[in-house]
Amino acid sequence: MSGSSPSLAELTARLTAFRDERDWKRFHSLKNLMVSLNLEVSEMLELTQWKDDAQVEAAIHDPDFHNALSEECADILLYLLLVTERAGIDLPRAAAAKIKKNGKKYPVEKARGNAKKYTDL
User: Fold this and answer.
1) What is the pLDDT of residue 117?
2) If 0-12 CB within 10 Å is exposed, 13-18 middle and 19+ buried, where does residue 81 land?
3) How many other C-beta atoms lie within 10 A of the C-beta of residue 88?
4) How many other C-beta atoms can be found within 10 angstroms of the C-beta atom of residue 87?
5) How far apart are CA 94 and CA 83, in angstroms?
6) Interval 24-60: pLDDT, tens
7) Domains along the sequence of the chain with CATH
8) From the CB of residue 37, how many other CB atoms can be counted at a distance below 10 Å?
9) 71 vs 20, 58, 66, 93, CA distance in Å?
């Protein structure tokens, strides 16, 4: 695939076609997809096990680590797309709404330069 990256809608269509060709939709209850998504996130987190922040940052430049991280990110995105497809969620719209909501919860004048939760600002 050369050129521009596919949109989330295009990826979802390719993914659901892949799923349907294999007759896997019957295994994709919302709960099962959410569990699978969590397992994939755990696999990504496993890449950092026993490493400090500096080691993880340095590992980005290691081709094997970068490839493993890339694959885990892809797995996470694909399961997230299946979750949103199953639940009827427009992911770009939901993400845009969440950024707007977070902007209100974390106003720049209060949140800039600190990691406090919005309830502590």
Assistant:
1) 87
2) buried
3) 6
4) 11
5) 13
6) 999 999 999 999 999 999 999 999 999 999 999 999 9
7) 8-89 (1.10.287.1080), 91-121 (no CATH)
8) 19
9) 22, 18, 9, 25
